[in-house]
TrEMBL record:
<feature type="binding site">
    <location>
        <position position="212"/>
    </location>
    <ligand>
        <name>substrate</name>
    </ligand>
</feature>
<keyword id="KW-0479">Metal-binding</keyword>
<dbReference type="InterPro" id="IPR000760">
    <property type="entry name" value="Inositol_monophosphatase-like"/>
</dbReference>
<feature type="binding site">
    <location>
        <position position="66"/>
    </location>
    <ligand>
        <name>Mg(2+) 1</name>
    </ligand>
</feature>
<dbReference type="GO" id="GO:0000103">
    <property type="term" value="P:sulfate assimilation"/>
</dbReference>
<comment type="similarity">
    <text>Belongs to the inositol monophosphatase superfamily. CysQ family.</text>
</comment>
<dbReference type="Pfam" id="PF00459">
    <property type="entry name" value="Inositol_P"/>
</dbReference>
<dbReference type="InterPro" id="IPR006240">
    <property type="entry name" value="CysQ"/>
</dbReference>
<keyword id="KW-0378">Hydrolase</keyword>
<keyword id="KW-0472">Membrane</keyword>
<keyword id="KW-0460">Magnesium</keyword>
<dbReference type="GO" id="GO:0005886">
    <property type="term" value="C:plasma membrane"/>
</dbReference>
<feature type="binding site">
    <location>
        <position position="88"/>
    </location>
    <ligand>
        <name>Mg(2+) 1</name>
    </ligand>
</feature>
<feature type="binding site">
    <location>
        <position position="86"/>
    </location>
    <ligand>
        <name>Mg(2+) 1</name>
    </ligand>
</feature>
<feature type="binding site">
    <location>
        <position position="66"/>
    </location>
    <ligand>
        <name>Mg(2+) 1</name>
    </ligand>
</feature>
<feature type="binding site">
    <location>
        <position position="89"/>
    </location>
    <ligand>
        <name>Mg(2+) 1</name>
    </ligand>
</feature>
<feature type="binding site">
    <location>
        <position position="212"/>
    </location>
    <ligand>
        <name>Mg(2+) 2</name>
    </ligand>
</feature>
Length: 253
């Protein structure tokens, strides 16, 4: 069983971030996939950097990326252990140039995300960890352990939500909570804000794919939080459909 070392994985996400930022600074064109989601050269360059590095680091572990071809997508159901990658999570945020996009790498074992790393190139902030290891944040070269702060009764709920995908179902879900402090944010940063204690709840009642959530779920669980489907069961991976069900990420253990 492979145990990730931050010293091995951090250079990979930073290299992907550098490839993304080179394109971010100098302009780019936007294409659209069959599902109308945007695609840029930055997505493809980061994919290449990450996949080549992971294949060299762990030759026996397969890699599934959002930009992988249909042959890899078809093969994934045979895997018990693999890397799950979103080379540029938040392409809409990349296109709008608000800086709220990330590089995500997760290690999946038997359908669970056991370790993940999230890197925000514009912010130059990095989060990593897993349920069995704890969670950390690296800023300005300084590493510190992070932990969730659950909701205190009698105070407003600190809720983080999507900048690009706020659904009517999410609005309806929030009504019974009463007093809310709302924070809009793109990409997997929403999980990380909860993991470092700056928010308590992220309800996602809108579509996501497995690569959108895996790395940040591991970080949040490492910080003491949880990510569950609406029925309370854990959000899992390598499902028959790459789409996730609706879920709730929270600071509650």
């Amino acid at each position: 069983m492979y145990h990730p070392d931050i010293a091995d994985i951090e250079p990979i996400v930073r290299a992907a971030g550098e490839a993304i930022m080179a394109i971010y600074r100098h302009g780019f064109t936007v294409e659209y996939k069959s599902d109308d989601s945007p695609l840029t050269k930055a997505d493809q360059c980061a994919h290449k950097v990450i996949v080549q590095a992971l294949e060299k680091l762990t030759p026996t572990l397969p890699v599934l990326s959002e930009e992988s071809g249909p042959d890899v997508m078809a093969a994934r159901h045979q895997w018990s252990h693999y890397w799950l990658v979103d080379p540029l999570d938040g392409t809409k945020e990349f296109v709008s140039r608000n800086g709220e996009f990330t590089v995500n790498i997760a290690l999946i074992e038997h359908g669970r995300s056991v370790w993940g790393i999230v890197y925000a190139p514009v912010l130059d902030k990095l989060w990593y960890g897993g349920k069995a290891q704890g969670a950390w944040r690296i800023v300005d070269g300084q590493r510190e352990m992070i932990q969730v702060r659950p909701h205190l009764p009698g105070t407003a709920w600190r809720v983080v939500g999507s900048r690009s995908h706020l659904s009517s179902e999410t609005r309806d879900f929030l009504v019974p909570l009463g007093d809310i402090e709302w924070l809009s944010m793109g990409s997997s940063l929403k999980f990380c804000v909860i993991a470092e204690g700056e928010a308590e709840l992220y309800p996602r009642l809108a579509p996501t794919c497995e690569w959108d959530t895996a790395a940040a779920q591991a970080v949040l669980e490492g910080a003491g939080g949880r990510v569950t489907q609406l029925d309370g069961t854990p959000l899992t991976y390598n499902k028959p459909d790459i789409l996730n069900p609706w879920f709730i990420a929270s600071a509650e253990s």
